[in-house]
Amino acid sequence: MKIIGLVTVLFAANVYANLHLSPPDFDSANGRAVFVDFKTAEYNITYDTINEVTTVKSKITFEAKTEGKPLFDLVPCPDLVILDGKKVKQNLISFPGGVSKLRQVTTAVNPGIHTLEIENIIDANVIFHTDFGVVSSAFWIRDLKDRLFLEQYVPSNFEYDQYQMTFNVNFLGIEKASQDFYTNGKVTKTSDVSWKIEFPEYFTVSCPFYHMTPKGWMKRLDFSYQSISGREIPMTVYSPWKRRTRKFKPEALRVIKELEADYGPWGHDSFVGYGTMIGTGGMEHSGATATSFGALDHEMLHSYFAKGVMPANGNSGWIDEAIASWRDKGYQRNPTTGFGGSDLGGQSVYKRNTDKRAYALGAAFMAYLDYKLQDSGGLKAFLKGYFQTYKHQVITEQHFKNNLEFFSGLNLDADFGTYIWGTNSDTEHLHETNLHHSALTKDELKSIL
Ligand SMILES: [Zn+2]
Fold first, then answer.
1. Could you read off the pLDDT of 304-332 as tens digits, one per residue?
2. Which terminal residue of the chain, N or C, has fewer Cβ atoms less than 10 Å from its own Cβ?
3. Domain CATH code at residue 116
């Protein structure tokens, strides 16, 4: 109970300063590696239609709390890095234990506010339709393998951090750009060849949805939903086919109504759903998803758990997949988990991706928690309060456990110790893939642009 009080106070005093949720700083071959707190990130994205190149010039304002060489990530190698106005170098390094890679600036900073300017090229998920003078581009993300969040495209921080992002999108080589934008940010047209997209401050590196298509190429339906909060929520569904788009509208309305009844008012400004082909699964963003029809409900649940209340790290990623799968399986209640133990959430503190076993083992653990919490109204009653209290905040699995204990009065040390932070006695589900989050190849991801 004490810990809960402390956590709440920290959040209240320091809304989006999440450095206390970062993994520990460490020593690399280049010196002390320090995690930092991004404040704002402005990404100037230019589509050069003559040379068919997409470049990004980024300006990031960040705060360092301790002296050291700052960490960030960017999958493409940066062409230029400027720290506080001076050109510097960066290195691709490994996290301790080699669990993932990231980038470290080779110049140390003192505690305080700094700026980082970075230039790079985006290769992934862009198609220049030269004959038509238009471009298809999307920042698709994935969470089951690491380095597949925004760092695929633009310099980014890690999941613990929340910061205001702005995309300034420009076109070179044409007089008038003819494009549509599907996004969970606020879009403003700034000239015939440029747009500004501003994302909310609570977003993390896995929240923005950005899909730009040639004008009119997608068939869209815009409508609104009257939330139980009284708010009109703008909703957009779209796909390449009128028939598919028409099928998505009633399902999106059905699911948002169900979710509001279970977990309270929708937590985002709007909803945007891109209907992809059968078998492609889906990926969730905050109030947005790109998904096949069969996974639409699963991905919309994630606007509550995953992108409404957001995981701080890979170890905490199992929670939202467990909740979503528990719902997919009809909210079962079981007196046992049906497995002996696992290390689902007990792996390296530097791990960035979600363990695939979260679907099977995590859902079974939720069914067991629902059984244990039945005298307090069950797990759904807890989740409703948890979402309303921590909406737009980044959480850890320890925070989740503390709140479950506070809500139920139970001590869950032994259960978490065995099923989440234990030794892995389950190999059956280790390589299982989930139909809601199919592993698409690079070509498949490009094919849905
Ligand atoms: Zn999921």
1. 999 999 999 999 999 999 999 999 999 99
2. N
3. 2.60.40.1730
Q: Which of 199-213, 247-261, 415-429 has the lowest mean pLDDT?
A: 415-429
62 alpha carbon – ligand 1 mean position (Å): 31
Query: Which of 285, 304, 323 is the endpoint of a domain?
Result: 304
Going from the Cα of 90 to the center of ligand 1, the distance in angstroms, rounded, reads 34
What distance in Å separates the CA atoms of residue 91 and residue 214, rounded to the nearest whole number? Answer: 37
- The model scores a pTM over 0.85: yes
Residues 191 and 232 in one domain: no
In this predicted structure, what is the pLDDT of residue 434? Answer: 67
CA 19 / ligand 1 centre spacing (Å)? 26
Strands 37-48 and 164-172: parallel
Distance from the alpha carbon of residue 296 to the mean position of ligand 1, in angstroms? 10
CATH assignment of the domain containing 234: 3.30.2010.30
Note whether 64 and 84 are same-domain residues: yes
- Asked if the structure places residue 443 within a domain, the reply is no
162 & 243 share domain: no
